[in-house]
Each structure stands twice: as structure tokens, then as C-alpha cells.
Amino acid sequence: MSKSGTIIIVDDNKGVLTAVQILLKSYFSKVVTLSSPVTLTSVIREEMPEVILLDMNFTSGINTGNEGLFWLHEIKKVRPELPVVLFTAYADIELAIRGIKEGATDFIVKPWDNQKLVATLQAAAASTSQEKKSNAKEEPIHPAMYWGESKVMQQLRTLIEKVAATDANILITGENGTGKEMLAREIHSLSHRKHQEMIAVDMGTITESLFESELFGHIKGSFTDAHADRTGKFESADKSTLFLDEIGNLPYHLQAKLLTAIQRRSIVRVGSNTPIPIDIRLICATNQNLQEMVGKGEFREDLLYRINTIHVEIPPLREREEDIIPLAERFIIRFCKQYDKAPMKFAPDAKEKLTAHPWYGNIRELEHVIEKAVIINDSPLIPAELFQLSVPPRTGIQEKSISTLEEMEIQMIRKALDTCAGNLSAVASQLGITRQTLYNKMKKFGL
């Protein structure tokens, strides 16, 4: 039996390191062990491994798993294609699932099954070898839009089918988790630009200092670390669709630069004076009330007019109860295939429980709940008791006791900061936003 290549194991438990090393030396040509991830990125460059087995906790007494997620991101900065298998305790399965969404290949639960551990790591290593053999770049797979049966979604579908064929700028609004990016991809797929890849940009993650470079590109030597010419997102989206998510998070003084590019239909790279024509279809999305922000002087009115040729609002899931179960059943099929589980169905009481839940996290929350249920459940029927659905306080929406959306955001961020003891990664995860978006909001609200 031929051995796989090099594997790096990172775990602060020396007993675990020794046991796994003994097990894997028969299956991998080289097994490198690290009791601390501090030197991990440099070891990756030296050893060029096929796979990494990464523990999720390293600091004594701290078992949040956030360290594992941090090092996962560091690994991906060095080698984005490198498979990372997370090593986690049963109690941290939920966090491991988040890790997969953020780039991990798979996870192994401690105490582990030797056969499953070997099979998982060999499969991950094989994917690296296969990628090295193939020069073809695979296109990312995005879930198809599910329109549902509700009247409001069918009306939205009719509108989208009319406007998708045009080049009109579209503004998509809706609560977090309603599927704004998915709708943007659907619009793109129905347009004449569908043969080019849609370029998506999360405006909440772009720092102010890199805004122009990220969107417009730069030329070599234009600033420190500009070692080569770089194409910005606008140029990358030429002849295609540019999707700007969380547009409401763009600082006011940068909005004029974006407006100029949209109006002139050209951009100028940082460090250059030469205009570059661009042909894009612009789609923006936000969960904020931009008209209200205009009134407060936080968003440019002229920019709003430019991006708002067509405005579409995605209704929250709680306002279309008839779509909840069909959506959940689609998630069951997908996750049963993903985790190699036998087909499952909902017990009748489970359907009732899911339908009655308000789903303030919308489709994203539903997807997360179903994924967890598929992983844990071992029977053909998923019972109601498997769903521990807590309802967060949302009096600002239900009773209008909070006068503005901004006040509600402040209250939610403060509560999350208290709950997570100031751990910003955990706070961002709980709120369903990126760390950069969280930083921007805390700065904005003086928190």
C-alpha cells in the first residue's frame, strides 16, 4: 500500500500527539508533530504537507475553540488549498461545523475511531494530490435559489425575472440570513452576463486604508508592499456582475469614490492617472435602512439613487411560514449527502415545532439548525426534541419598544459583548456578522 505524503499534527496534548503519530506513520510518508501552533505557518512552508490535523484548543482552561478557527484562517493565508481536518471534543461539534463553513475540510471527534481518522486524513491528502495533478480551475458551487410557495416570494420571483435581463442597478434589502447574496447570484444567472463569474465583495471586511486598492486596484510601487500591479474588483467584474454586500457599512467619506466610479463607468488604479473603462452590472445589498441613514447624514443621497434603480426586499422567513418545512427538507437532503447519512424525514411534531419558531436568523439559522440535527440524529425520523430552539429577545421588532434599528443594534451588540465576555470573534459569530463589520459598528456606536 502506497503511503500518502506529509501530514502535520497540531495538538497540545503530548499523549494525543504520540498516539496519533504511531497510528499514522504506517499511512503517511512523513508525520510532523507540533505541540503549539506558534511555528505552524513556517513549518507549512518548509514541509509542504498534504494535510493538517488541527486541534481547536491550545490554552489551558479555555475551550472556546476560537484558537483553532484563528489558526485555520492563518493556514489558509499561507496555502488556501491545503486541507485542514479539525480535531475536536464532542461538545465542540457545533464550532467544528462553523470551521467547515470557514474553510476546514472535515472534523474528527475525540475520542476518535482509528479507522475513521485514517480514512478522513487520507481522503483529504488525496484531494491535495489530485489538485496538484489538475491544472483546471474548478468553479465554486453555489446553492440554487429556492423560491418557495408563498405568494410574496412568487411575486418577488416575477419581478426578478423581469429585471434580471436588464443592466439596471439593483438594491437588495432584508434581514440578516434571508439570502441576499443567493438572490444576487440568481439575478446574475438569469442575465446575459451569466457566462462570466459574478464578483462578490463584502464591504464590511474591507479596511478604509485598502478600500481603493481592493476595488480599483493599484500599480507597482504605488505604496509600501505594492510589489506588483493588482487588478481591483471593478476590473475583475468587467463584462460581468459586481455584488457589493453590506453597502451600508461603507464609511461616508469613501462613498464619494464609489459614486465617481459608478457615474463615470471607469476606474483609476491607485498610483496611476489612466482611466480604465468598466462594463459592470451593479447589485448591492444591505440589512440597514439606507433612506433613514440619508436623513441622518450617514449615507449619500446621490449614491443611493445610483444603486437603487430597482429595489427588491426579501421578506423574513417568519412572514412566509409555508416555506419553512420545504426549505428544511431541502437542507436535510443536502446534509445527508454531505455527511454520508441515511435519508431522514421530520416527525410530525418536529414540523410543528419548526413552523412555530420565529426564525429571527432567517434561512441561515434554519440551515444551521438542520445541519446540526442531521449530524446528531441516527434514526430515519428527526424528532421534535432534537431541536432546542431558543428565542432571543426581539422586542424591538415585535413590540416597537425600541424606536430605531440603530438602538436595537446597540442593544444586541452590548448584550453579546457581555455574554461572550468581550471575545470579539465569539460576538461576531453570535451576531452573524464578520469581525470587521463588528469593529465598524462598535466604532460607529462608540462601544
UniProtKB/TrEMBL annotation:
One of its GO terms (biological process) is phosphorelay signal transduction system. Residues 6-125 form the Response regulatory domain. Keywords: ATP-binding, Nucleotide-binding, Phosphoprotein, Transcription, Transcription regulation. Gene3D superfamilies: 1.10.8.60, 3.40.50.2300, Homeodomain-like, P-loop containing nucleotide triphosphate hydrolases. InterPro entries: AAA+_ATPase (IPR003593), AAA_lid_NorR (IPR058031), CheY-like_superfamily (IPR011006), Homeodomain-like_sf (IPR009057), HTH_Fis (IPR002197), P-loop_NTPase (IPR027417), Sig_transdc_resp-reg_receiver (IPR001789), Sigma_54_int (IPR002078). Signal peptide: none annotated. Residues 146-375 form the Sigma-54 factor interaction domain. It comes from the Bacteria. The modification 4-aspartylphosphate is found at D55. GO terms for molecular function: ATP binding; sequence-specific DNA binding. PANTHER family: ALGINATE BIOSYNTHESIS TRANSCRIPTIONAL REGULATORY PROTEIN ALGB, TRANSCRIPTIONAL REGULATORY PROTEIN. This is Sigma-54-dependent Fis family transcriptional regulator. It comes from Bacteroides faecium.
